[in-house]
Design goal:
By secondary structure, this protein is mainly β. It is built from six helices and 65 strands. The strands form ten sheets. The protein has a 19-stranded mixed beta sheet. Strands 1-6-8-10-12-14-16-18-20-22-24-28 form a twelve-stranded parallel beta sheet, with helices on one face.
Length: 800
């Protein structure tokens, strides 16, 4: 038989039939079927043979059946001499010759046990072999318990809800139809659940696990395994040593075991995403590779430093609910960095592809979307990534609201969809959120949560008995039979944090280039949420839509623009002052960088009233930026290509290269104040790398409350009336604060400052400054350098 099959296969291969190669079946259900098949199965499918050994060319020591009438061992019961296999042997009680169990065993343990010691009375559904031979153990259509020993055994559960244990050895266990519980103590095994809601635990060894049809609960064990969930909504719990994990058809929950990759469906190497499965991935603390493929997938990281989030087709989410150090996510960069607060050297390089949604942790996160708009999202993945399945996530339709209205303009109809930008949810904590391009939906308090719900019925319906966050909380109860895997259902839900939090939405351009609920910003009437709780912010440059798009914001306390911030709700003290870019060799301010020059940045000129004594003493992360379109005032982070991927130019020092020639530089710093709020502060822009400094800049204010910013050169600033904030920046500036209670941050350089009337706060910054505080009660801090200070009238506080 073997020669015929082998020779016939070789002839087929020579004639061009290449179906033999597994690589040709990647992405097809046929791959799972090939892994699931065996020559023994082929023989049984085409003959009346049953319960053959998994290695059909081997000779088992015994073939034993739960239904002993179907068993043939060539043995009868021992006769008067008490020895089996002698002339006085007799048929058993069933009167059938040749079907008796072999005698033997160790001490008081028989070789074959048919009475379950855990149940009262005699049993007809229990079979245990305790010997050393390689055996085949066959079940019935009932609920059987079958236990093998240390040999290389084959176990068949057949129909019914069976319990199968392979013991040690290289075993093949086939559960068959029914809700089976399959376990194996050790060895390199092939475990197949078959039809039904099966629970499979591989134990030690290198194992192949196939759930088959039904909603299965699979635990891969301690060593290297490959798992296939099969059709159905499966739950797979892996280990770091696992090979590829496949969810296959259905909405699967895949937890851990993704170091070598995990595919929500069949790992289609052509990326066709032909199978739709709304899968959930739960990462480990190591590098995970999550491939959602088709469907709306949710990928939950767990602090792995080089995770891969690849959504494929469908509206997919990257979620950071388990991150213990908060998250700093940049979808445009396709990389993940640990939060800069607290500072850590374990920066990461997780990558994102075709991920449209972001949800943060319970801490203060930095979440930055990408530039995907309606055109990009419609073509993301093979079949597009527009959100249409709103019912999958409880509360998502309510949050998206009018943004989901399709061509009919009515929410709640069949054509509802959202695909114009990212959905970014901050969750708990005080988050910094930047939508970037596209029309984004941003919420500071909401988050996306996933959990496993245990229902009353084995088909996943009925009331919820309880829920858990991890399969590990259910393992013991599932394998004891208390919980049927069919009772498990995945819950996806939008939750809202109770706070307190102070969340900030970040935009790339100056305030004047935005509209709020369709209106120009009016300090006397700041924007307020509409009846649905949203503020709409539109980027308008020169009368046309700008690159930031039109974003809808909710639960946001502050709006930050490139020139100033607007506080909408809550109480927070803004950082005062600017970062200083310096020549690292001399530690002196330098706003004229050149190629190859080592630069450094200092935060010494910045204070924060929310911190003790206004000092910023905690961890600070610096990001170096450049102005790609000179004169626009819009700066972007500098990205550096490395062997591990693209990373931000970050840290206290930076050396500009030839690629930045003629472009202005700036530094962005992020720190966390004493109230837990993430704050951003910037340096004044430099001149273009290698260029001469600009001529003096003249800035004239009005009678309102304003923020006036100088540049890198020698500025002349007249603030006029109002309670103004004046930032001189670099250069030797001349500043007249005018009337009102003003805050003056002169910055670097030898500045001349007149506080004029009002209760002013004057910070001279670096350099030899000349300060006349003017009338009224002023606070004057000359800063480093040899300063000349005149308090003038009033009760002044002078800090030297």
């Amino acid at each position: 038989t073997f020669n015929f099959v082998f020779e016939n296969q070789m002839e087929k291969l020579q004639n061009g039939d290449r179906f033999y190669y597994l690589e040709r079946t990647a992405g097809l259900n046929f791959l799972t079927e090939l892994e699931n098949n065996s020559f023994a199965k082929l023989i049984m499918a085409n003959t009346d043979a049953t319960h053959l050994p998994g290695d059909v060319f081997s000779t088992p020591g015994f073939i034993l059946e739960v239904d002993q009438t179907r068993q043939f061992t060539e043995l009868n019961e021992a006769g008067a001499d008490g020895i089996q296999g002698t002339a006085d042997d007799v048929a058993g009680l069933d009167g059938i010759s040749g079907n008796s169990d072999p005698l033997g065993g160790f001490l008081l343990t028989p070789l074959v046990i048919r009475d379950n010691p855990a149940t009262p009375g005699a049993d007809t559904d229990y079979l245990r072999y305790t010997g050393e031979d390689h055996v085949v153990l066959g079940g019935t259509a009932g609920n059987d318990t079958i236990i093998a020993s240390i040999g290389d055994d084959t176990l068949y559960g057949d129909a019914g809800n069976d319990r199968l244990e392979g013991g040690d050895g290289v075993d093949m266990i086939l559960g068959g139809a029914g809700d089976d519980i399959i376990t194996d103590l050790g060895g390199d095994d092939n475990l197949q659940g078959g039809d039904g809601n099966d629970a499979i635990h591989a134990g030690n060894g290198i194992n192949l696990m196939l759930g088959g049809f039904g909603n299965d609960f699979i635990v891969t064990g301690e060593d290297s395994n490959e798992a296939f969930g099969g059709p159905g909504n499966d739950f797979i719990f892996g280990t770091r040593a696992d090979e590829m994990v496949f969810g296959n058809e259905g909405d699967d929950w895949i937890e851990h075991g993704m170091a070598d990759g995990s595919a929500g469906e069949n790992f289609d190497t052509r990326g066709l995403d032909s199978i739709i499965g709304n899968d959930v991935f739960i990462g480990d603390s190591v590098a995970d590779r999550m491939l959602g493929e088709g469907g709306d997938d949710i990928m939950v990281g767990n602090g792995g430093q080089v995770d891969r989030y690849i959504g494929g087709s469908g509206f997919d989410w990257a979620v950071f609910k388990h991150d213990s150090l908060a998250a700093n996510v940049d979808l445009n960069l396709r990389a993940f960095d640990e939060t800069p607060v607290p500072l850590t050297a374990a920066s990461a390089l997780a990558r994102f592809e075709s991920a449209e949604g972001l949800s943060g942790s319970s801490l203060s996160d930095i979440l930055r979307g990408d530039d995907a708009d309606a055109g990009v999202i419609a073509s993301s993945g093979f079949t597009g990534s527009v959100l249409t399945n709103f019912g999958l996530v409880t509360g998502l339709q309510q949050f998206v609201g009018a943004a989901a209205a399709g061509s009919d303009g009515i929410v709640g109809t069949a054509d509802d969809q959202f695909g114009s930008g990212n959905i970014i949810l901050g969750g708990d904590g005080s988050d910094l959120i930047e939508g970037r391009g596209g029309d984004d939906l941003i919420d500071g308090n909401r988050s996306l949560n996933v959990r496993i719900s245990v229902r009353a019925n084995a088909n996943g319906t009925g009331e919820e008995l309880f829920s858990v966050d991890s399969m590990s909380e259910l393992t013991e109860r599932v394998f004891s039979g208390e919980i049927n895997p069919g009772q498990l259902a995945i819950v996806r839900e939008i939750l809202t944090a109770n706070g307190p939090g102070f969340d900030t939405a970040v935009f790339s351009d100056v305030l004047a280039n935005y509209r709020f609920n369709g209106q120009v910003f009016d300090p006397a009437n700041p924007p307020t949420p509409d009846i649905n709780g949203f503020i709409t912010v539109s980027h308008i440059v020169g009368g046309v839509a700008g690159p930031d798009g039109t974003d809808r914001l909710s639960n946001i306390e502050r709006l930050r623009f490139s020139d100033q911030s607007i506080v909408l709700a809550g109480i927070n003290s803004e950082p005062v002052g600017l970062l200083s870019i310096r020549d690292a060799a001399t530690a002196t301010p330098d706003n004229t960088p050149s190629e190859g020059q080592l630069l450094e940045v200092s935060i010494a000129g910045v204070s924060d009233a929310d911190n003790p004594d206004g000092l910023i003493t905690g961890p600070v992360t610096y990001f170096w930026q450049f102005e790609p379109r000179p004169g626009t005032g819009i700066f972007e982070d500098i990205i550096i290509a490395t062997g591990l991927g693209d990373v931000h130019a970050s840290g206290p020092t930076f050396t500009p290269g030839a690629d930045l020639a003629g472009l202005a530089l700036r530094v962005r710093a992020i720190y966390q104040d004493a109230n837990g709020v993430l704050e951003e502060v910037f340096s004044a822009p430099t001149v273009g790398v290698g260029l001469e400094p600009p001529p003096p800049n003249t800035v004239v204010g009005t009678r309102g409350d304003e923020t006036l910013n100088g540049g890198a050169g020698d500025d002349i600033i007249n603030a006029d009336r109002g309670n103004d904030t004046v930032n001189g920046g670099g250069g030797n500036d001349t500043i007249d604060a005018g009337r009102g209670d003003d805050t003056v941050n002169a910055g670097d350089g030898d500045d001349t400052i007149l506080g004029d009337r009002g209760n002013d706060i004057v910070n001279g910054g670096l350099g030899d400054d000349t300060i006349d505080a003017g009338r009224d009660d002023d606070t004057i801090n000359g800063g480093p350098g040899n300063d000349s200070i005149l308090g003038d009238r009033g009760n002044d506080l002078i800090i030297v």
